[in-house]
Structure formats: C-alpha cells, structure tokens
Amino acid sequence: MNYKSIIKSQNTRLKILSLLAWVPDSLMVRLQYRIQLGFWPNLKHPQRFTEKLQVYKLKYRNPLMHKCVDKYEVREYVKNLGLGHILNELYGVYDRAEDIDLSKLPMEFVAKTTDGTGGFNVMLVSDKNTLNRQSFCAELNGWLGKKDINAGREWAYTGENMSRIIVEKRLHQVGGGNLTDYKFFCFDGEVRFLYVMTDRKDGVVSLAICDTEFNRLPYSRGDERTMQGDPVKPDNFKEMLEVSRILSRDFPHVRVDLYNIEGKIIFGELTFYDGSGYFHFVPDEFDYIVGSYFKEIT
To answer: Is residue 276 part of a domain?
Structure first.
C-alpha cells in the first residue's frame, strides 16, 4: 500500500508523522516497511537491499553524511574531492525568501530548500517577471524546516544544518523535455548499476535500470513507469562512472545523482536512502541481488 496515494497532501502526512514522533525509530521503520511493502522486514539478518537500507538508517553513523545531504554544504565536499567543475552554477543561498533579490537573478532559475528530498520543495521559475512576490515568498518559506519531521527516520537528516533556500541555474535537456537523471548506485566506492530516469510527471518517472556497461537490465520498480525503448548511452559515460566512484568512496553505500547536458556532467545530489527503502523491485529477486552488494552494517 502506498499511503501517499491515499493521503495526497504532504503537509497532512507530515502532521500525522509529527504526532508519531514518540515512536522509537526501530519500531517506526518496521511499521512503515510493513505498510508500504506488505510484509515485515528482517532486520536481524537482512538480505534484501530494502532491509539493509533500514539497518543503514538505524546503525550507520558517519557525521560526513550530514554535510552531504545538505544541498549547499555538499558543494564543499564535491570541491574538496577535486570535482568543483561539475557543480551547477550557484546564484545564492538564503535564510528566508525575503532575502532573495529577484533583480539580481536571471529570468529563469531553480529555487529549493537545502534539506528537501524526493523531488519535493523545488520551484522551477521560467519567467521571474510573472512571479507574485508574496506567493513566491510564502511558498518557499513554507518549505523551510520540513526535515524537522524526519518521516523516514533517516539519520543523515538529523544534523544541525539549518534549513535554507538555495537558488541555482535552471538546466534544460537538449531537444526539450524533462531532464534525464542518471542515478549511480555505489557500494564502497564501486558502481554496481544505475537508474536512467526521464519524463517526470506528478512525481512519477519513466525508469530503465542499466549495468555499468549501460546494458538494460530486466528489472524495474513497482512504483515507477517502465521506460519504453532503451536509453541512449552518453559518450562520456566512463567519466560519469569515475565521478561516481570518487564521490562515493567514503561510504558503504550512496546513490550519486548526475546530469549530462551536451557532454557536460553536472552534479545533482548524494542520496543515502533511496526511496527510504520502501519500494518493490520487479521481479523481486533484484532486491536480493542489490542487497548482496551492501556489506552488513553492525
């Protein structure tokens, strides 16, 4: 059962979850897993990737993760690894939306909170002259601090970084259409497979799962559309693999999200808990295959 399809309002879901903040993390992740996937996770001897992600939330404690999930602070991490050239152009970071001087921004841009996840809390502006300043500020400010309610009990988001607003260059796919996301699943600095995601609509995307040679794998996600036809392999795909290895080498597992626009690799984000571990692979065997890549966290 997908409770997001039943309770469509994010604010309502967060209010309900805030009332359950007293429930211990270990119990809450079990309950959420059971509700979403229909069976209880084995967290004592996890074999599935989705089970090991729950253990990752509960047991793995690397303070560097706090920096890496913050969309502004992660830029320093990327630069320190010698990859500053793949960062998207930054226009500014702000404590409140009222601090944003629209006159100093280009006509189009992207505004988002530094602690937003799952594609939420992102505003795509195509023409700043059409913005209603009051509504613009109200919407952005309304997103601030949403991670104070840690819906998935994801430890990386429990750091002390303040929720802020970041404004960046708006990216466009060559030929039009939505941007293509390349999401590299890395384990101990080694890329094992990737998602190629296109045509995002209402939070759902078209998905292909590929190996590190960019061959299409016979697996999909139950909560996403299966991509029709095979994705086109970028000419500099090997460089994308190397970038992902560098960005992931400090962690047992992280998903490295990249864009590739006319051969230019652009950093998206680092994600430690893909889908919070509450999803089905189709067929189910892939959950075990991916789980075998993930060393057990003790």
So the answer is: yes
22-36, 164-178, 218-232, 274-288, range with the lowest pLDDT:
164-178
Q: Note whether residue 273 is domain-resident.
A: yes
- What CATH number corresponds to the domain at position 254? 3.30.470
Q: Is residue 31 part of a domain?
A: no
Contacts 24+ apart (CB under 8 A), 143-151: 143/113, 143/116, 144/96, 144/113, 146/14, 146/113, 146/115, 146/116, 146/120, 146/121, 147/115, 147/116, 147/117, 149/14, 149/17, 149/18, 149/21, 151/13, 151/14, 151/17, 151/276
pLDDT of residue 72: 97
Cα dist. 47→27, 50, 216, 290 in Å?
A: 19, 9, 24, 9
Per-residue pLDDT band for 203 (boundaries 50, 70, 90) equals low
In terms of DSSP bridges, do strands 281-282 and 253-261 run parallel, antiparallel, or are they unpaired?
unpaired
| pLDDT over 70, % of the chain | 90
Q: Can you say whether residue 148 is alpha, beta or left, with left for phi > 0 and alpha for psi between -120 and 50 degrees?
A: alpha
Q: Are the beta carbons of 270 and 69 closer than 8 angstroms?
A: yes
Q: Do the domain assignments include residue 23?
A: no
Number of structural domains in the chain: 1
Cα R_g (the chain), whole angstroms: 19
Q: At what angle do helices 25-37 and 49-59 cross, to 10 degrees?
A: 160
**Amino acid 287: pLDDT:** 98
Q: What is the pLDDT of residue 62?
A: 96
